[in-house]
Each structure stands twice: as C-alpha cells, then as structure tokens.
Write a structure and sequence with these properties.
Chain lengths: ~70, ~400
C-alpha cells in the first residue's frame, strides 16, 4: 500500500509498532535508522491527516456561519 | 307499454304522457328520506315545491307539497333539514315531469340523528376504521399541503396564516367547498379525492369552524368517513365542535383541535428547527474536534518518545557508549599483556643472569680459552708455547703455556 493511501489509523498503528520495536531494541543500527526514518514519515502522515481534519472543521464552521446568516 | 306503436302508427304526445302517468300512478306510496335542498313557497299558492336531495349521491327528486302538509311540519321546514317524506310518485302531464306528491313530511329530529350517528359510529368502529394501527404518521415536511375548507372561511385563514408563520416556504393546494348543507358531503369527498390523487400532496387538512350539531353532520357522513379511510394521503381533521366529535375526527390520521392546531401539526416551526439544526451541528463539530484533539495528543506522545524525538540519544548514543566501552576493554587488555610481557622479561633476565659464569668468576675462578675460543678443560689440550686467554671477573689477560 503506498503512503498516500494510508489512513490515519493505519499510519498511527504502524507508528506505534515502530516505536515499540525501537524501544524494544535488538535491531541492528541500520535497521534502527530505517525504523526511525519510517517513524518520522508515519508521524508526518498522521499530522497531515489531523491538519486536514482541522482545516475541514474550520471550513465547515465558516460555511455554517454564512448559512445561518443568510437564513436568519 | 301495453300499446303497439311503429313509425307508421305513432301515438300522439298526450297518449304517451297519459300512459306514462298511469304507469307511474301504479307505483304506489313510498317513504323517502333526504335533505331539503331547496324550498319555494309561493305566496298565495296552495302548493309549495321542494327539492329533496340524497345527502351522499348527486340525486334529487322534486316534491310537490300542499300548503297544509307543509304547515303541519314542526319545527317549520327549512333548507338543509333532514326529512322523511311520505308521498306518491306523480307524473305531471302538462310538463311531462315526475315528482313526488307529498302526503306527509316528518322532519328527522336531532335526537334521532344523534342516535343514528351513534349506531354508525359503533358499526364503523367494529369494522376497525378507527383503529390506532390504521393511523399513518404525518410527513415531517410536506411538499404540498392539501386544504379542504369553506371559501374565505376563518378556518382557511387560520390554517394558511399559522402554517406560513411556522414555515414560510410551505405550499398549499386549497380546495374551497361547501362545508355545510346538502352539497357538503359530495363536495368534500370530491375535493379529498382530487387532493389524494395529486402526487405532490403529502398531507390533507379538512377544516371548518365550529357549528351546530346539524351543521357538522356532513363530517359524520358514512360516505365521507369511508372516503377518508380510503385515502392514500394522511388526513388531518380540524373541525371546530363543542361536544360531540364528528366521526371524521375518529377516522382521520390526526385530529387537530382547531385550524391553528392543524397548521401546527402539518408543518414544523422553522425557527425551532433551525435552532435544533445548529445545535446538532455544534455538537457534531465539538465531537469531531475533540476526536482530532485526542488523536493529536496520541501523536504528540508518540513523537515525544526518546526513540523518535532524539534518535541521536536513542539510537546512536547507546552504540557509541558500547563502542567506547569496547575500545576501553581492548586497551585494557593490551596493557595487561604488555605488563605481563615486561614482568616476564625481568624474570628471564634474572634467570639468564643466574645461569651466566660471571658469578663464578667473581668468586675468583677463571676461564682459559685457546686462541680459537675453545675452553681448555685438560692440560693435554694445549701444547707448550701456545698462547691462551684467561678470562677473569673483571677483564682478561693473555698467557703462554710453559
């Protein structure tokens, strides 16, 4: 699955798993660095989702404001 | 007809009329019940004419009534009254019209009407027409509201006005009909049928203001009650009445107490609904907002974990420490080996020293060697005149064999 198709929960769950593996240790340095990079990527995807959700909320709130203004 | 006629042998009009009249006269007397649709008394005339109408079907009979018969009526006959007429079908030759010649007219009393109403009510109830399970719910927001009411009536005004106050965009299809009198049942039923057929009409209101028991009789008519029961569209009744509810109230899907109440029931209040809507919207917004906030916290928590927040410390540093420790260990172990080697060297030197002849020479011994370096151990090994070297503790000297 490409990262673009990754939903928020999928990204978050994978991030949790990455952190768990990093914290558990046992991986090679190269693996650890790869895991860390993946973790950063996943965190960025999650943040993107949350920012998008906030933007949509703000847009909806703005739209509701004009609607009720024209109806009233 | 007991007369043979043909195109060649027709009978004159008078004969035909006389024959019809004789035929009609043989019908004998009948008791007929109906409603007085029209009553005309001609001053000075000994006869009055009235039109007797069927309250349900569009059928009428003319009644010719001698003055005496009319005057005998108690209470005096008025238009709209229910009557039972005892009469004789009569064919009026001069005009070729059929009428009922009244011998007696009995107004149907209010008590009788109410008793009949009770019987009808019991019968329709037994049929299940008033069952709660038959009641259909009204639509939340009807596209078109059908309204059956009297022309220009206060009831019409009340319904329209109050419905528009609540929901300005409400649409009505108004059917103005007679709401009392002889035509009321058929007109109301027809209007109902027209509105019921209209696919845009989502609810029908039948309304009229209050009136006497007689005025409201059409709204208890069996035909009308059945028409309402057969409607596909939900029907709201809003008939003003003081005591006895007309049967329409029982069969309607919703019974409104007044026309204003009917308006309240068929359309929602736009302000109330707008307020509810914005409330729901606000809750929606809050719910999603808190969800996003919660997820943000989770994400922040994950990102703040040392392995992600400071990978240098989390990933690299432990390894650095490890490497440093290893270097330290390797250095230590090398040092150890060097020390051991040095110790060994001292030891070995001491042993070497202990094994050397130097100590023996110190005690005064000497080593005699020939010129080629061979150690002399026996006098036979040398010849006279041979040069020898004598090694002492603190140097050497040369000697010659005697």
């Amino acid at each position: 699955m490409s990262d673009d198709a990754l939903g928020y929960e999928q990204a978050r769950d994978e991030l949790v798993e990455v952190v768990r593996r990093l914290e558990a240790g046992g991986a090679t340095l190269e693996e650890s660095l790869a895991l860390w990079e993946r973790g950063e990527q996943l965190a960025a995807i999650c943040q993107q989702w949350l920012d998008g959700a906030r933007a949509r909320l703000a847009a909806a709130a703005g739209g509701a404001g004009t609607e009720s203004a024209s109806a009233g | 007809m007991p007369v043979e006629t043909s195109a060649e042998q027709p009978v004159p009009v008078r004969t035909a009329a006389r024959l019809i009249g004789e035929w009609v006269a043989r019908l004998g007397r009948v008791w007929v019940e109906g409603q007085v649709a029209q009553l005309s008394r001609r001053p000075g005339s000994g006869t009055a004419f009235l039109t007797l109408r069927d309250p349900v079907a569009d059928v009428s009979l003319s009644v010719v009534c001698p003055r005496a018969v009319l005057d005998a009526c108690v209470p005096p006959l008025v238009e709209g009254a229910r009557v039972v007429v005892h009469g004789k079908p009569d064919f009026y030759l001069a005009r070729g019209t059929l009428s009922l010649s009244a011998l007696e007219i009995r107004p149907v009393g209010l008590g009788e009407l109410l008793a009949r109403l009770e019987r009808l009510k019991a019968m329709l109830a037994a049929e299940g027409l008033f069952e709660t399970s038959r009641k259909r719910p009204l639509p939340f927001l009807p596209r078109v509201v059908g309204l059956v009411c009297g022309r220009g009536s206060a009831a019409e005004h009340d319904v329209l006005e109050n419905a528009r106050l609540r929901w300005p965009a409400v649409q009505f299809r108004v059917e103005n009909v007679a709401v009392q009198g002889v035509y009321a049942v058929t007109e109301v039923a027809d209007a109902l049928a027209r509105l019921d057929k209209d696919p845009d009409v989502d609810v029908i209101v039948v309304t009229r203001g209050g009136g006497s028991v007689e005025d409201l009789l059409p709204f208890s008519d069996e035909a009308l009650v059945r028409a309402v029961a057969g409607c596909r569209t939900p029907v709201v009744s809003a008939i003003g009445h003081e005591q006895d509810a007309p049967l329409l109230d029982l069969v309607a899907d919703v019974r409104a107490s007044t026309p204003t109440d009917a308006a309240r029931r068929v359309v929602p209040d736009v302000r109330e609904e707008t307020a509810r809507l914005s409330q729901a919207r606000e809750r929606l917004h809050r719910a999603v907002g808190s969800l996003v906030g919660h997820e943000q916290q989770r994400l922040d928590f994950l990102r703040s974990r040392p392995v992600l927040a400071d990978p240098a410390a989390g990933i690299v540093a432990p390894r650095e420490t490890e490497v440093r420790a290893l270097v330290e260990r390797s250095r230590r172990s090398l040092q150890h080996r060097l020390d051991r080697a040095a110790d060994e060297l001292v030891h070995t030197t001491a042993r070497v020293r202990a094994l050397s002849p130097a100590a023996t020479l110190e005690r005064g011994y000497a080593v005699v060697q020939r010129a080629d370096g061979a150690v002399v151990r026996s006098p036979t090994e040398v010849a006279a005149g041979e040069s020898l070297r004598v090694r002492l503790a603190e140097g050497e000297l040369a000697a010659t064999v005697d």
